[in-house]
Design goal:
Length: about 475
């Protein structure tokens, strides 16, 4: 009977791998009582705050319990706080700690007598196997259909040429201490990894295609779309490896993140896809009009530019994805939304068009800086980046009047404004000058200019993540 249930369970895992790795809520709560801020990854791996890894064994038939408790441990008599090698819970789940063997490999403890919960349990079948993991012979039954080839994968980390000049920057603002920059240059396939205190990359993460767009999620993952690829890579920053590839009907392009949802556009497919970031699975395809680009998300609306027709469209996410035609605008470089109005810049006309969303009427046009390339909204302020003069102009969106001009003090060609999560700061990048600026949007001033030895096409700033494969 147990064997029959095990076969059914393996079949279930192969059909629904995205749900198979979900750790029950009461089990998560049990672990978090002892280890707050534990990461329960969508592939099933459990990472404690100190980077200790536990691999869960899913029972063929989990027991329903009012409260999750420890049934037994190996070694015996241990509490969870003591991080024993094996924890058997009263719902028949098993937690197996990844340990280092004498020869430097990662492995699991293999007791001479295996409890029934281990012999009948299975590892998550879509799990990213920790680098170098070797499963002992008498535990091979827990593998199921899991592909262990990735255990020998050297992960994505590759060396880069180190600068012969000084690498340290002179000073750093407090908000950037102990941060890591992940930089896509626009010409290299590799993502450059730079410590915020340094000018040059420490190493790079290898990709098979040149990255198109890149966003960070939960300070633990990078979502990366690439030119010539129909998949979006999900990179675990702790593993420095591709933990999952999400496949689309055609090349995915831009990524917008709102909470635990990602909206991923595909101009080729005239679609915007919804990705559940909790499970890293596709949940919906929204068919739209035209070849979408220049996406922005605000107030439950996605705005985009159709590069074939020069039309701007809105997708009302809370209104059954209703499409609203905003009108035609030439050479759109960026779209923003604030206080019920759409702000549209023209790269060649050096104009800002302001449209009332409800009335769908032009409010006014404003002459702005030459070559406006990016915009970002912070509160009631709209920041417009001008590439030629390397300036940022500020529009008060309550009055639609220009209030400030911020000079960057660089001599390159400004390209992007990228917000640093959970701050009022934004990185101002440059495609020519070996420098980036830090804009404080609350005080409307540049608080730091720092050297960097790679051009920035896209940048993601995260807290420094403890690596679990070191």
């Amino acid at each position: 009977m147990r064997k029959f249930l095990l076969i059914l369970f393996m079949a279930f895992l192969s059909v629904l791998p995205s749900y198979a790795a979900k750790i029950p809520e009461n089990m998560q709560q049990f672990v978090e009582k002892t280890f707050p801020n534990t990461t329960f990854r969508f592939d099933g791996v459990i990472v404690l705050p100190d980077a200790t890894i536990y691999l869960p064994l899913f029972p063929a038939k989990p027991l329903e319990v009012e409260e999750v408790k420890i049934q037994s441990t190996i070694p015996t008599g241990k509490t969870l706080a003591q991080k024993p090698e094996i924890v058997i819970l009263n719902n028949d789940y098993v937690l197996m700690k990844v340990i280092n063997s004498n020869d430097g490999h990662k492995t699991l403890l293999a007791p001479s007598t295996l409890p029934n919960q281990i012999t009948s349990g299975l590892l998550p079948q879509d799990m990213l196997v920790p680098k170098g993991l070797i499963i002992p012979e008498n535990l091979k039954g827990i593998i199921g259909n899991l592909n262990l080839e990735t255990a020998e994968n050297p992960n994505l980390k590759v060396d880069v040429l180190q600068s012969k000049s000084g690498n340290k920057i002179n000073s750093i603002i407090p908000e950037l201490k102990n941060k890591t920059f992940y930089v896509a240059t626009g010409y290299s396939k590799n993502i450059q990894v730079i410590n915020s205190e340094n000018k040059s990359p420490a190493y790079a993460l290898a990709q098979t295609h040149v990255p198109n767009d890149m966003k960070g999620y939960d300070n633990k993952f990078l979502l990366v779309t690439s030119f010539g690829s129909s998949a979006m890579n999900v990179i675990s920053l702790a593993d420095e490896d591709i933990i999952k590839q999400i496949h689309f009907n055609s090349q995915p392009d831009e990524i917008l993140i709102d909470g635990d949802i990602a909206y991923v556009s595909s101009a080729e497919d005239a679609s915007i896809y919804i990705v559940n970031l909790d499970t890293m699975t596709l949940s919906k395809q929204i068919k739209i009009n035209g070849m979408c680009e220049k996406l922005t998300l605000n107030d439950n609306k996605i705005f985009y530019f159709d590069k074939k027709t020069n039309e701007i469209w809105a997708v009302e996410l809370d209104n059954n994805y209703l499409l609203k035609d905003i009108g035609k605008f030439p050479n759109v470089s960026k779209i923003a939304y604030a206080n019920g109005k759409i702000y549209i810049t023209s790269r060649t006309k050096n104009r800002l068009a302001i449209v009332d969303y409800e009335k769908n009427e032009l409010v006014k046009e404003v002459k702005i800086c030459e070559k406006p390339v990016d915009m970002i909204v912070n509160g009631d302020n709209l920041f417009i980046l001008g590439a030629i003069d390397n300036i940022i102009q500020v529009i008060d969106t309550t009055t639609d009047e220009m209030t400030d001009t911020i000079y960057l003090g660089t001599k390159g060609f400004s390209t992007n404004l990228d917000r640093i999560d959970n701050t009022n700061l934004a990185i101002v990048s440059d495609s020519r000058a070996s420098v980036y600026c830090v804009l404080d949007m609350s005080t409307k001033r540049i608080v730091k200019n720092s050297a960097i030895e790679v051009p920035i096409r896209t940048i993601v700033v995260t807290d420094r993540v403890k690596k679990i494969n070191d």
